[in-house]
Amino acid sequence: MRAFVVGLMLTAAPLAAQRVTPVEPSAKGPTIAPSPVTEDYFGTKVTDRFRGLEALDAPALDWMRAQGKVTRSILDTIAPRAAYLAKMSALTGAFGTVKDPQIGAARLFFQERAPGHDQFDLMVREADGSKRRLIDMAAYIAAHGKVPHAIDYFTPNRDGTKVAVGISAAGSEDSRLSVIDAATGATLAGPLDRAQFGSVSWLDDSSGLFFVRLQALKPGQAISDKYNDATVAFWNFTGEPMTVVGSAQHLGPNTDPIRTSFVVVVPGAAQAILVVANGVAPEAEGWVAPLADAVTGTAKWRKVIATADAVTKLSADKDRIVLLTHADAPTFKVTTMPWSGTAATATTLVAAKASRINESVAVAHDGVYIGGREGLNARPIRVANGVTTAIKLPYDGSMGDIVADPLRDGAYLELDSRVHPPTTFRLAGGMLTDLGLETRPALDYAKYRAVELTATAKDGAKVPMTVLTVAGPMTARPLLLDAYGSYGISALPSFNPRQLAFVDAGGTFVECNVRGGGELGDAWRLGGKDANKPNTWRDAIACGEALIAAGYTTKDQLAISGTSAGGIMVGRAATERPDLFAAAISRVADSNAMRSETMVSGPANIPEFGTVKDVQGFKNLYAM
User: Fold this and answer.
1) Cβ atoms 288, 272 nearer than 8 A
2) Which of 57, 88, 541, 598 has the highest local Cβ count within 10 Å?
3) Distance, CA of 229 to chain centre
4) Per-residue confidence at 15, pLDDT binned at 50, 70, 90?
5) Is the pLDDT reported for residue 6 higher than 50?
6) What is the pLDDT of residue 22?
7) 549, 470 in Cβ contact below 8 A?
8) 10 Å Cβ neighbour count for 147?
9) For the chain, domain boundaries
10) How far apart are CA 375 and CA 329, in angstroms?
């Protein structure tokens, strides 16, 4: 495989007409001396040639900076790149982006990055349809020494008069939790440190809230312990929050320091729900106890959800708990139980179907709203009084979790597609209303074409993918193939102005829904996990081969990309089939899976990738 230069894919004029000659470095890049460490794993010796880089000491940092300078010098030789980046930035910046709508009585809170802004602000939409800025992050940053800050999460209280907000500095994600007035934006309490995980849940009367708090590391304690022994704290806004659940404190049923607990308060319910998550595993366990006891840390929790119940999401009102589960249901079913019951004895509300993936549940006053898909396209439904009603959408696309309040009728959802910008809708009485939250430029979307295709994997599995290209006759074009394939996360067709700019420049973008993701249900997730992980990168290889065979691209125009856990996919696809790809982009990537569990977030990822401490786990990770 040729050395990869990002800018080769980024030209201002159509790439089909203007091919850029690959730029080879004029001299060898900076080097650093190997620091090999050899370890024996169950009789197999593995040498990590550059283990010393993990120390991030001065020589390692100097080497990385020098590599960056060399890379920049190569990119700067690609003349069309600057104009392309300017066009892409202008197009992206012309859109206003909205995310994370949340209900606070008649108010709707959300984050918005307005056109030309760098950060998401906290916004509120009033009952009359007017909207205003509650936290202006540009002003916030200016007031905090011009150090960049970002909103990590927020949760309004029941009546929409207060908002709990987590904000972190300089990309750290080390959130500090504050409570602000929803009318003025004034800080009412906080900030509290060690609030990165948030998981805020308010009492009905707003006299306090639960949240997850990380431990305070002691001097000399390993940074890898940071996320262990997280607690649930109750905060009444006077003094220090009180720990009410914690493995180290022997409060609550969880004794595993790696597992994270959080408390859910349900409007009008006399009991609270304690959810315990096993790292990144999708299945959680659950307990219930009187809310009054949960507040004081004296709760005697009753287990109602076991790992074997395969519950991945829940929603509730004062009378029932609604569960999303893949127990005996690879495409997921929805069940319901009274507060006095258990998941094992829950009754089925929506049965699993081979043709439909159920993805989310939200209990509203007028029924249960269920997000789901047929293939890659959203097909939400509402169940009320034993009747299931399909919710008609204006076009095929994807949507996030439906947002609802058990005290109010209706719900909110956001819909988009490759060629439709995101739109936030209010759903009431079976009708969708565009709330007009998003800002978007006038654009001719008819010049783009979105296509759904399948590739046949080596073992015969049919792998879905979505293509974004130019409308009109198909010709072979430079093509960027992206995939992820971990945690059961679904990479669904979504809108991205950068991809439109890439198509305008002569390219084609493709998302390959490889195994390990959740696009086709839990069996699809398990098909790319543990000993089956090679299916993840081999599915991507199959997508590349199919796109070439169909005439969308050629080997010398095909690039593959992966981000984070997608680094496993891109790294192994490129090393297994170097002849297939002209370029590989590995972004903030997991490129050495055998060392992942030693990172700060590593232990939480063991349920997904395994551990080198057992034979099969080592074999799986070694293959990655």
Assistant:
1) yes
2) 541
3) 23
4) very low
5) no
6) 53
7) no
8) 9
9) 6-37+48-91, 306-440, 445-623
10) 16
Q: Are 509 and 503 in contact (CB under 8 A)?
A: yes
The CATH H-level (homologous superfamily) assignment of domain 445-623 is Alpha/Beta hydrolase fold, catalytic domain (3.40.50.1820)
Closest CA to 516 of 556, 463, 451: 463
Cα angle vertex 436, ends 435, 439, to 5°?
150
Which residue blocks in 395-486 are alpha helix, DSSP H?
none
What number is the average pLDDT over the span 355-383?
A: 98
Both tokens of 475, joined, read: 């010709």
* Range 496-509 average pLDDT: 97
For 563-585, the DSSP string reads ETTHHHHHHHHHHH-TTT-SEEE
Q: How confident is the model at residue 222 (pLDDT cuts 50, 70, 90)?
A: confident
Residue 445 in 3-state DSSP?
helix
Question: In terms of CATH, what superfamily is 306-440?
Answer: Prolyl oligopeptidase, N-terminal domain (2.130.10.120)
User: If we measure between CA atoms, which residue out of 385, 495, 514 comes closest to residue 445?
Assistant: 495
Using N-to-C axis directions, what is the helix angle for 81-93 and 497-504, rounded to 10°? 140
* DSSP-assigned beta bridge partners for residue 585: 561
Q: Which tokens hold the place of 15?
A: 């790439």
572-592 residue pLDDT tens: 999 999 999 999 999 999 999
Please state the rounded mean pLDDT for residues 37-66. 96
Residue range 507-534: mean pLDDT, rounded: 98
The full length of the chain comes to 624
Coil, helix or strand for 452? Answer: strand
- CA 327/CA 331 separation, integer angstroms: 10
Q: Which three-class secondary structure string do you get for 297-340?
A: CCCCCEEEECHHHCEEEEEECCCEEEEEECCCCCCCEEEEEECC
Say if CB 305 and CB 284 are below 8 A apart: yes
Mean pLDDT, range 72-96, rounded to an integer: 94
First and final CA of the chain: distance in angstroms? 19
Span 293-297, average pLDDT: 98
Residue 430 has pLDDT above 70, yes or no: yes
> Given this model, what pLDDT does residue 601 score?
86
Q: Residue 127: pLDDT above 90?
A: yes
441-454 pLDDT, tens per residue? 999 999 999 999 99
Structure tokens that stand for 370 in this block: 């269920």
Does the structure show a pLDDT above 80 at 12? no
Q: Is the peptide bond before 191 cis (omega within 30 degrees of 0)?
A: yes
For the chain, the average pLDDT equals: 94
Output DSSP code: residue 90: H
CB 209 within 8 A of CB 203: yes
DSSP string, 201-259: EE-TTSS-EEEEE---PPTT--GGGTTTT-EEEEE-SSSSPEEEEBTTTTBSS---TTS
Using 50, 70 and 90 to split pLDDT, how confident is the model at 23? low
Contact 325/310 with Cβ under 8 angstroms? yes
Interatomic CA distance for residues 440 and 484, integer angstroms: 28
Query: Which residue's structure tokens are 């805020």?
Result: 200
Please list, in sequence order, all residues whose beta carbon lies within 8 angstroms of the beta carbon of residue 401, skipping any fewer than 6 positions away. Answer: 313, 359, 360, 362, 371
